[in-house]
Amino acid sequence: xxxxxxxxxxxxxxxxxxxxxxxxxxxxxxxxxxxxxxxxxxxxxxxxxxxxxxxxxxxxxxxxxxxxxxxxxxxxxxxxxxxxxxxxxxx
Length: 91
Prior knowledge:
This protein is of the alpha+beta class. It has one domain (19-83): Sandwich (Immunoglobulin-like), CATH 2.60.40. The protein contains one helix and six strands; from the N terminus they run αββββββ. The strands form two sheets. The chain has a three-stranded antiparallel sheet, with no helix packed on it. It has a three-stranded antiparallel sheet with strand order 3-2-5, with no helix packed on it. A hairpin with a 5-residue loop joins β2 (39-42) and β3. The longest helix is centred in the N-terminal third of the chain and has 14 residues, at 2-15. The protein is globular, with a radius of gyration of 18 Å. 8% of the residues are buried. Mean pLDDT is 68; it is low at 1-6, 11-18 and 87-91.
């Protein structure tokens, strides 16, 4: 019986954990030149970040959805995001 109670508590902790995503990438132009100080935000939210001098950016501990899209400023040109997406579960 003690085994089942322990297993149940463990299962509840696992099921109630929050899943956060981490999105990292770089801002580059059509010639693969890195673009610094680009404001990047997730459309429809107040979540945003700014790219570094080397054009790198990251969204950490953010609840991202597969179909989220991004907007950038102050550029009116296409900016490409080659991200690496990882998911981590946190209690």
